[in-house]
Amino acid sequence: MRMATHPEHASDWTKPSNMGALEVTMRATIHVIVGVMRSREAAVARRTKKNLHVPLDEQLHARLVAQAQRVRAPVTTVAREAIEAWTAEAERQARQDAMRAYAEAMAASGADLDEDLEAAAASNALDATR
User: Fold this and answer.
1) How far is Cα 5 from Cα 11, in angstroms, rounded to an integer?
2) Within 13 Å of residue 34, how many CA atoms lie on the same side as its CB?
3) Residues near 20 by Cβ (< 8 Å), separated by ≥ 6?
4) Using CB atoms within 10 A of its CB, is residue 68 exposed (0-12), middle (13-18) or buried (19+)?
5) For residue range 23-76, what is the model confidence (pLDDT) as tens digits?
6) What does residue 110 show for φ and ψ, rounded to 5 degrees?
7) Where do the domains of the chain lie?
8) pLDDT number for residue 89
9) 37 and 44 in contact (C-beta within 8 Å)?
10) Highest mean pLDDT among 47-51, 102-106, 107-111
């Protein structure tokens, strides 16, 4: 079943001859903008990718290849994802360590407790139990 896209010109209303000059110009401009954006994205992707040579012992290499085969992905993809996961976890751990060090340094100081906030929390907790 063929759907008409416009009741008056069902088959050809989107052709440039049936559009106003402004609409043709706008569509052409949009195509140019999209092309430029895609080109820039591709250029950024090419510039931001770096190669890294990582010597692996035979056992680790075999394990990596086995995992790549298991998930049906290229070995480089599996290695990249493993490096990304390890890096994200290391960054998360560093943030936790920094927060812990700050909390320990500020314990029992003026920055430790906000008396108004503590009173409001206590009041809210009491109201919730009633």
Assistant:
1) 7
2) 6
3) none
4) middle
5) 777 777 787 788 778 887 777 777 777 888 999 999 999 999 999 999 999 999
6) -65, -25
7) 73-110
8) 95
9) no
10) 102-106
Closest CA to 78 of 57, 61, 58: 61
How far is Cα 88 from Cα 80, in angstroms, rounded to an integer?
12
* Maximal C-alpha separation, the chain: 78
The residue to which tokens 């109201």 are assigned: 127
- Please say whether the dihedral angle defined by the alpha carbons of residues 42, 46, 47 and 52, taken in this order, is positive or negative: positive
From the list 97, 87, 60, the residue with the least C-alpha distance to 75 is 60
Structure tokens at 129: 């139990």
Strand (E) positions, 1-130? none
Q: How many Å apart are CA 43 and CA 35, to the nearest integer? A: 12
The pTM for the full model equals: 0.49
Cβ atoms of 79 and 64 closer than 8 Å: yes
Separation of alpha carbons 62 and 59, rounded Å: 5
- The 3-state DSSP class for residue 47 equals helix
* Interatomic CA distance for residues 127 and 130, integer angstroms: 5
At 126 the pLDDT is 79
